[in-house]
Specification:
Largest sheet: 7 strands, mixed
Radius of gyration: 16 Å
CATH superfamily: Gcn5-related N-acetyltransferase (GNAT)
CATH class: Alpha Beta
Strand content: 25-35%
Number of helices: 5
CATH topology: Aminopeptidase
Mean pLDDT: 94
CATH architecture: 3-Layer(aba) Sandwich
Helix content: 25-40%
Length: about 170
């Protein structure tokens, strides 16, 4: 019987192509039907391997990669809360898992790892934002204990979208 190695670690430059693929496939899965396809492609073009190489070289302390047998299959980015209206010091900016791997508890592992890192920095509370209509994210964040704490609007390529804030205290 084969054993699958699951690791959560900081990114390295060899992860760049895989992280780019995770981003594109996860955004496509999460936002098709919410964001027009042309805009999904434009967003994806900004997160190519060059972007992820830069992240690995410069921002690795606020990024964790989930790898399966050494291959990057998900990531989480986190840091200080950027929104004064929500009573939390920490924020998860992005959390994406390759859609092929979703539903196996890997997103929860990434979420928990980011939450532990933020707690180690003495951040009190955590917020995550998701676009309205992303039912999978809504279910996931609620199952992790988050509750809706607010909403606002965000603009991509001339279009406004409603987004929901999920809060953990």
């Amino acid at each position: 019987m084969a054993t699958l190695t699951i690791d959560i670690r900081h990114p390295d430059t060899e992860d760049a192509s895989a992280l780019s693929e995770v981003f594109v496939s996860a955004w496509d899965e999460a936002y098709r039907g919410i964001i027009p396809d042309v805009d999904l492609r434009r967003i994806a073009s900004r997160r190519g391997p060059e972007y992820w190489t830069h992240v690995a070289q410069n921002a690795a302390r606020q990024v964790l990669v989930l790898s399966l047998d050494g291959a990057a299959r998900g990531y989480v980015t986190f840091g200080h809360n950027r929104h004064d209206r929500i009573p939390a010091q920490g924020e998860v900016y992005e959390l994406y898992v390759d859609p092929v791997c979703q539903g196996a508890g890997l997103g929860r592992r990434l979420f928990d790892a980011a939450r532990q890192r933020l707690a180690a920095r003495r951040s009190k509370g955590l917020v995550i934002w998701a676009l309205a209509g992303n039912d999978r994210a809504d279910g996931f964040y609620r199952s992790c204990g988050g509750h809706v704490a607010g909403e606002d609007r965000i603009r991509f390529f001339g279009r406004n979208y409603r987004r929901i804030a999920y809060l953990w205290r």
